[in-house]
């Protein structure tokens, strides 16, 4: 258990270090309170989720540690993950540049509300983890895996991606930029490509998934798609 916890914390610290470098290096200053607040909100939520997994679902925690393009078993997904990582980094470089060059102005209250929505998106991820212990960081099907159709899975087929998309849209506003919002679109397109490929993979390998697709019509957004 201790090794899993240490690996989780090391992974979080590495991610926070990358995000902080992208934000503050592009901003050219550490005097960027919106960035500090965002990182604090993000880190707090992830630490709480990790604590839950350590206490109640260590198998899922272990599967979530196997992450990144190199961990994927399919070449298409390795490409998708690489593109997602690249585009995701841009979401933090652009707000830093905006802070440096004052391209746009977001009212502080809107940034604070956006931080709240980012926290909500991570709460959605937490609910997904509570409901589905097979939410691996890579696309795979384990021998004991079953279709989960309860909770948020009864509303959309990919609720974790829905939460991620919500976070992507509001991260630029939380960091004080309008200019950065369009940079969320490439990441969203990558997520859509990933989930479409994932559905093909699961339908061919996970018993009952084809029926689940017929029963739950929407992939990401209720009543829309």
Would you kindly provide a written description of the structure presented here, covering whatever features stand out?
With 225 residues, this protein is an all-alpha fold. It has one domain (2-215): Four Helix Bundle (Hemerythrin (Met), subunit A), CATH 1.20.120.1630. Helix content is 68%, strand content 0%. The chain is built from 8 helices and no strands. The protein has helices at 2-27, 33-56, 58-65, 75-101, 108-131, 159-174, 184-205, 209-215. Helix 2 crosses helix 3. The mean pLDDT is 86.
Topology:
Elements: H1 2-27, H2 33-56, H3 58-65, H4 75-101, H5 108-131, H6 159-174, H7 184-205, H8 209-215
Helix pairs in contact: 1-2, 1-3, 1-4, 2-3, 2-5, 4-7, 5-6, 6-7
Q: How big is the Rg?
A: 18 Å
Oligomer: single chain
CATH level 3 topology: Four Helix Bundle (Hemerythrin (Met), subunit A)
Query: Which band does the percent of strand residues land in?
Result: under 5%
Total beta-strand segments? 0
The count of domains is: 1
Q: Order of helices and strands, N to C?
A: HHHHHHHH
